[in-house]
Task: structure prediction
Amino acid sequence: MTSLAITGGTGFVGSTLIRLALEQGHGVRALARRPQPAQPGVTWVPGALDDPASLTALMDGADAVIHVAGVVNTPTRAGFIAGNITGTEAMLAAATQAGVRRFIHVSSLTAREPALSVYGWSKAEAEARVAASGLDWTMVRPPAIYGPGDLDQLDLFKSTRFGIMPLPPHGRLSLIEVSDLARLLLALIPAPETFGHIYEADDGAPGGWTHEDYGRAIGAAMGRRVLALSMPGFFLRLGARADRLWRGDKAKLTADRAAYFCHPDWVITPAARPPASLWTPQVETQSGLKATADWYRTNGWI
Result:
């Protein structure tokens, strides 16, 4: 049985990762800022990325690290630096000190275009730290992640009630369902042939999805016909200002996010996919979106 040190275990991706790790027979040590309900097979380690003592405790007896935690949305550059760069540096230092050589790092497809946003820049800088660590690392750059429990895509599902779905300017994107991503992270652990590689993983759709096709697919998952409208970048930036006025520091559409949402190509590079002998996606996207919509309804989110 492999003992895994996991960050971000209370979040959307991390909670799915822990569930599948337990199903596969792994032991889990997971970092958590707040007390968590007892869970068989999971040792919750109180602390945070800026607490060296808690990271030392996290590494105790671990065979591998899966670093999921990071900052996706924050109003300041300092927030991205602390969550994505400094936090990754702290994890690398703790793993090195503890002699835990296997390090799986969850990055982002936005790291391909670091000039577009502070978020993408911070993820690229974190990648550089991992690559220079001397550990047996593998990195994964997920595209847009969806699935039961996701907050980022929730507003798109909610918008179907109005019959019109505003979307970023014309472009394409790749998608991955959260359990498929978690299965990939676990498949990488015992695979030395993946050391030193950066992978881009998706649902296998050739050429990805147009923004409009994705909007219509969400509408179908909700059982509604929607008019999927790609909006000019100006309107997206205006929406970011409005969201900041409405929700303040909790705004989901920030100016930084609007900047990379307007990029026309967030399709993964086919040559960067993980080896098919190691992992292939199992969740067909339309059925995955339907399962996500059903979960939202069951849990009263929509």
